[in-house]
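Predict fold of non-specific serine/threonine protein kinase; 296 aa.
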Amino acid sequence: MRSCSIEDEYTVVRELSSSLHLKTHLVRCKDTQETRKCRAIEYLYHTKSARIDLDEAIYDMLRVRCPYMIHYTDVYNEEGSKRYMALLSYDYKCTLEDYLHEQRAKGETIPEPMLWNILVRAVKALRYLHDPAQHGGRVIVHRDVRPGNMYMTDDSVVYLGDSIFCSSYTYPGSHVVGSALTNMAYAPPEIMTSDAYTTAYDIWSLGCSLYELATGAKYSEVIKAAFPGVNYLHALERLQAQPLAIPGYSESLCANLQRMLHIDPAERPTAASLLSLNGSNTSSLASSLLHCSGSC
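Predicted 3D structure, encoded as tokens:
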């Protein structure tokens, strides 16, 4: 991490998108004229503990080297502007949220082979993050898996996005929720009853994301709508007593999503198990992929 302005080496061309505490800019290198995407991460109003959480997340994103997710190649700490400027490892065309809206505007759904492709690449990214052998005995929980933070290139290659909400803990164990909260629409049910979470957090979030990409609806809203006036966790239990079925998509895909969306985090598959085929584990992702086209 550098304690200087990014404008010493890059020209900020324009702002591409903006959200709370986070903006994305297009920047151009003054030496090579190469253009890159860059995150502007503001910390002016962060508490001391929130700033510590943010710094740890940024260092994790700097250390990550995974071909299936966006990470930071360099970060500039601009103390005067109270922000970090983080250069991204990969370029992209749009988010999967944008892609979903484009498909819906045309009256189309996302083809199932594309959903499998998204699932495979996202799970491979999570397998890397959740592997303690990759991080000196620690695991990284992404905590920001959602369609708006998954990206597609012009060649339809999908990357899991970076995360300023990620956290790490020594494996085995769990992590206590810090001061930074992520998008609650993709947060797992266990955070409603406990202040600790594991890597199963990300599996739930990915299940929610894939459900939304398949149906156009947020899973959390479906739970509330299915049983109006019923406590959220009770409504979830009642909904999950029924087999998950999504019109136009295979039983195999739906079965995998239902496993990922299990109310009990201990019953959700790990990223590693989703990518393996062991004995009778025929409902695993690897087994399901046998029925997909070559694009998977």
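The longest strand covers residues 10-19.
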